[in-house]
């Protein structure tokens, strides 16, 4: 019996040593490839970026932009911030990366931001992007947008009236809460707006924070439905609720359009329903509608809030803008709003609507900037 036990322990010990040897061998292989054969190894950056992007993720919780800016001040316009990630702060290189040409495709970051769906915003498929962009470009043309201008105008007047009422009552106004970006986009995409908060609207208002969590910790979001991780579980649940609502709203508009096309409200996707088989499927329209809602709700409200703040902080710009608006003709157009265009351009340089670096992938191993 003792000899059998001794033999069993020896076999377990041998198996353990063999597994340890394999793990050590894999670790050495990984280290060798990461340090000596990774094409990013020759790029400047903190030494720990060769091994992990944990420091970058730690600063995501606090001040990622400032951290990366300090790295550029120390290492130059091209900095390695992780084993497979480089940050570039150079105008010429940025133009090369973002020009309309194959070579630099979207990174998986965008699929993590809007998960479990494929649309114009997050797709990594170039042909899919070209096809859908061609179909969706017409509804966003100047002539097509005129058909929905009255709807937008009504919401703008409602927001301004609400601000004026609060100014009269309190002497100040919290403009952020009056920008009804989600209501405008609901009307333009789904021909429907609730006019009051429900769970769907609460999910939309949390998109910015939850989107950051999804894109930074995609693995935790994937397993959140099975593990008791409250913040990650709620993030996954909110994404599913927005998807479900988008599907229901598209189905409802399709039913109304089929029953009485003439009475159906104009939306950005109406031509897709009219196109029949030449357009997009119901699920594809749902995916694009979801992308429009995600991109146009809190982003719009935040942008307009900081635009008002920027103009209020610059007395000279505010006076020029008010003077221009007071002198507008009744039939004014975009060309008559010179000061408004200048104020908007200055604002976007100081307060970009998405205060993060644009993340792109590479479709080739050998690219030169």
From TrEMBL:
Database matches in InterPro entries: Cyt_P450, Cyt_P450_sf, Cytochrome_P450_monoxygenase
Keyword flag Membrane: yes
Keyword Heme attributed: yes
Residue stretches spanning the membrane: 16-37
SUPFAM superfamilies (UniProt xref): Cytochrome P450
The entry's keywords: Heme, Iron, Membrane, Metal-binding, Oxidoreductase, Transmembrane, Transmembrane helix
Highest taxon of the lineage: Eukaryota
Coiled coil: none
Family, as annotated: Belongs to the cytochrome P450 family.
Protein name (record): Pisatin demethylase
UniProt GO molecular function: heme binding; iron ion binding; monooxygenase activity; oxidoreductase activity, acting on paired donors, with incorporation or reduction of molecular oxygen
